[in-house]
Amino acid sequence: MKPILLQGHERSITQIKYNREGDLLFTVAKDPIVNVWYSINGERLGTYNGHTGAVWCVDADWDTRHVLTGSADNSCRLWDCETGKQLALVKTNSAVRTCGFDFGGNIIMFSTDKQMGYQCFVSFFDLRDPSQIESDEPYMKIPCNESKITSAVWGPLGEFIIAGHENGELNQFSAKSGELLMNVKEHTKQINDIQTSRDMTMFITASKDNSAKLFDSTTLEHQKSFRTERPVNSAALSPIFDHVVLGGGQEAMDVTTTSTRIGKFEARFFHLGVEEEFGRIKGHFGPINSVAFHPDGKSYSSGGEDGYVRIHYFDPQYFEFEFEA
Amino acid sequence: NDYVKEPGFFSLFLFAELLGDVLKDQPQEADGIDSVIVVDNVPQVGPDRLEKLKNVIHKIFSKFGKITNEFYPEADGKTKGYIFLEYMSPAHAVDAVKNADGYKLDKQHTFRVNLFTDFDKYMTISEEWDIPEKQPFKDLGNLRYWLEDPDCRDQYSVIFESGDRTCIYWNDAKEPVAIEERPRWTETYVRWSPKGTYLATFHQRGIALWGGEKFKQIQRFSHQGVQLIDFSPCERYLVTFSPLMDTQDDPQAIIIWDTLTGQKKRGFHCESSAHWPIFKWSHDGKFFARMTSDTLSIYETPSMGLLDKKSLKINGIKDFSWSPGGNIIAFWVPEDKDIPARVTLMQLPSRQEIRVRNLFNVVDCKLHWQKNGDYLCVKVDRTPKGTQGVVTNFEIFRMREKQVPVDVVEMKESIIAFAWEPNGSKFAVLHGEPPRISISFYHVKNNGKIELIKTFDKQQANTIFWSPQGQFLVLAGLRRNSILCLEVIHRVDNAYWLWTFQGRLLQKNNKDRFCQLLWRPRPPTLLSQDQIKQIKKDLKRYSKIFEQKDRLSQTKASKELVERRRTMMEEFRKYRKMAQELYLEQKNERLELRGGVDTDELDSNVDDWEEETVEFFINEEIITIAEPE
């Protein structure tokens, strides 16, 4: 099936995310536009207007009521998903790099960059207590003195967050006390993206060190590695198969292909168990910055440096594929 | 050792005994005796010819300095046959010894020149002889082990990570098999010896040679700041160059070493290393030669001395080259006033000129030997009288025929590249001006003709590579003709790709910051021509066996792969099972966090579903409505 092309951004895509049920796809980019689309036909629902700089991250709560975005304009904003109205604005001292709702949709966290003399922090606001957001007083702020946080996700039950750092480290911080629960260093360079599996028992990291790695969410035990020859910008786990999709820079060009019409940048599919690549999908005209699986596993989306978002529905062969084992 | 054999020694011995008293009285100052030399094998003449002899001696020996004293001992009315000369300074004496020793006065008289002080030294050698300590036998292992690989795989070296890592691989059909990988094995790059026996690595302090199954260090050569090396074709000698080491008295820029013993054989000056190797070796390693302004110096091994003790004076010599098939040197000299340019073939060691070819209106010449020395091609660029442009001819010398006949092939276009077919009598020429470049193949036939076989035009190439066995040829358009690559050209996507010669891509091997790849050479085959013929005849039979072997190894690989995959899947499934159990245990907490809504499965809340109608974009059509009149 031909992929659906979403053209709603003027600059390179920074993150794309499906809501829990998968009918909506949120996309943000280095322009101030925040878009939401119907994933089934690519029709745009609308935009969330307010940001004045590049938007680095986006998240939707489990019930698709709220949308959270973080931007280089030093703000983290909360939106009403259906109406597009901006519900809250948290001003920060530096760019907001990563953000997310917890499992219950009640607590938001975001990290801010180390910039202009301000160090990296992770801030936690409980939405059930409106005073926190109104007076800009998070109930907890975890400082991050060494390597700044480049990606972060919530744990399965909202008890901790898992943060990836510029130096390749992974840290587990308690969302209640802020204490460091666990620390692991498997990557040698910056962690660009972290995404959990559907059931949140494990997560995949995408790193500048040309690899993606699978970890257990609770123990942070390293399970699998997927090696490529280029930095991996994003990785996502299939909700129905033992597959992972990697998006990143370009492979050493295949000399024999001469087509100039098709974009040559590829999303690469690996099998989780055997760590082997089994497929590639071309299409982007620039490196892929963000990938996401549809919650039903029958399609996936990718956002690229070229500003395009492509929604791919898998062919029957994808569902029949099996390794000899 | 030489002295014991020379007849002159005994007479000198006697003399020194006689002179003993006088010597004792002489003041024991170093200067006095250090400037004296003894010349032996001087003609024994009567008083009538003594004056003449003295003049001759004086002429020869005053070249090295002012002679302050001379003594011609006599006996029975004739000179004894040895003389004493004293110089102004010891340095002159040393010079005289260096340059006049071995001087051939005439057929019967070759001078032996020594420092007088040397006699003292050698006469006072102690009677006690210490037996040299027995060195433990250094077992280097089988240096040719890689030739015995049952799969006949080749080896190659790869340097990557900007020179930090060097690795030697077997060229296995599926993927390279690493044999030995060492960090910072070399400081710049590596070189294989011509027959593949040694791997040479470069270091600030010199060169190291490695070999054998485990690539143990075989030998070290201390040459501070070494930059370039060369091997003799037989691998017996190693030549190293360093710009740092040269001094007036002690030439150390180029050093020739004995590979196996590590001994420094001789040092040479070197003005410029622009055209390395400076010394060109004969095919059997018996001679090596270099060209300097108007001079061709040929040295012989193992003495490392000049052949016949002197260099050849060849005015205007521009280039020379050894035949790969015999000890013949080809060299050419450009036009000189009335004398035309010429190419000369000289046999060594006799120095007999076996062929001279005059050439007219020559601009430039290039010498191309065929691999076995069967033919020499001289590419001659000429500007014919009365014209402006440059025209190229190939003068083909048939080396194996009597009197070396020469045939000429005239080329209409400018030449880009030329290459003989190895082991054959064909050559390939790339000619023309870009973008209209063609390749032509010629056959040097036995009947005296050189036939143009075929021309292919529209070639995008600037270099020719024949397969080492001949028969096949690769044309390449190379951006830079560099064998070694110290500067990293690209920072990313460094790799080397292996292809079959028919163009099928076999492997892509990525290597971060890749610098150099070198195939390990092989020594020439030990098989006779008849044996090779027989094998070619039986090739079909051998092919069957090899194909079967290949198929077996393929299935073995698949079996291993399948086994590995199965194990990995098992492990993963075990892990997932554990994770699932924990997940199920936490169900209640999840329900609580989401206000009782079960979201574990996508279809957990079928009741909550709505029906929606969705529109899909099919087509866009633009219809122009006619303007109302």
Automatic annotation (TrEMBL), chain A:
Query: Gene3D superfamilies annotated for this entry?
Result: YVTN repeat-like/Quinoprotein amine dehydrogenase
Q: Where are the WD repeats?
A: 6-47, 48-89, 184-225, 281-311
Report the InterPro entries cross-referenced here.
Answer: eIF3i, WD40/YVTN_repeat-like_dom_sf, WD40_repeat_CS, WD40_repeat_dom_sf, WD40_rpt
Main subcellular localization, coarse class?
A: cytoplasm
Q: Spell out the PANTHER family in the cross-references.
A: EUKARYOTIC TRANSLATION INITIATION FACTOR 3 SUBUNIT I
Give the source species: Chelonoidis abingdonii
Q: Which family does it belong to?
A: Belongs to the WD repeat STRAP family. Belongs to the eIF-3 subunit I family.
**Lineage summary:** Eukaryota, Metazoa, Chordata, Craniata, Vertebrata
Q: What is this protein called?
A: Eukaryotic translation initiation factor 3 subunit I
Q: Which residues cross the membrane?
A: none
TrEMBL record, chain B:
PANTHER family found in the cross-reference section? EUKARYOTIC TRANSLATION INITIATION FACTOR 3 EIF3 -RELATED, EUKARYOTIC TRANSLATION INITIATION FACTOR 3 SUBUNIT B
- What family classification does the UniProt entry report for this protein? Belongs to the eIF-3 subunit B family.
Question: According to its UniProt record, where is this protein mainly located?
Answer: cytoplasm
Q: Which CDD domains match?
A: RRM_eIF3B
User: Which domain of life, per UniProt?
Assistant: Eukaryota
Record keywords, A-Z: Cytoplasm, Initiation factor, Protein biosynthesis, RNA-binding, WD repeat
Check the record and name the Pfam families matching this protein: eIF2A (PF08662), RRM_1 (PF00076)
**Gene Ontology BP term (one):** formation of cytoplasmic translation initiation complex
Which GO MF term does the entry hold, naming one? translation initiation factor activity
Its protein name is Eukaryotic translation initiation factor 3 subunit B
This chain's function reads:
RNA-binding component of the eukaryotic translation initiation factor 3 (eIF-3) complex, which is involved in protein synthesis of a specialized repertoire of mRNAs and, together with other initiation factors, stimulates binding of mRNA and methionyl-tRNAi to the 40S ribosome. The eIF-3 complex specifically targets and initiates translation of a subset of mRNAs involved in cell proliferation.
What organism is the protein native to? Chelonoidis abingdonii
RRM domain residues are: 35-118
Q: Matching InterPro entries, A to Z?
A: EIF3B (IPR011400), eIF3B_RRM (IPR034363), Nucleotide-bd_a/b_plait_sf (IPR012677), RBD_domain_sf (IPR035979), RRM_dom (IPR000504), TIF_beta_prop-like (IPR013979), WD40/YVTN_repeat-like_dom_sf (IPR015943)
Subunit organization: Component of the eukaryotic translation initiation factor 3 (eIF-3) complex, which is composed of 13 subunits: EIF3A, EIF3B, EIF3C, EIF3D, EIF3E, EIF3F, EIF3G, EIF3H, EIF3I, EIF3J, EIF3K, EIF3L and EIF3M.
Q: Where is it located?
A: Cytoplasm
* Gene Ontology cellular component terms for the protein in this record: eukaryotic 43S preinitiation complex; eukaryotic 48S preinitiation complex; eukaryotic translation initiation factor 3 complex
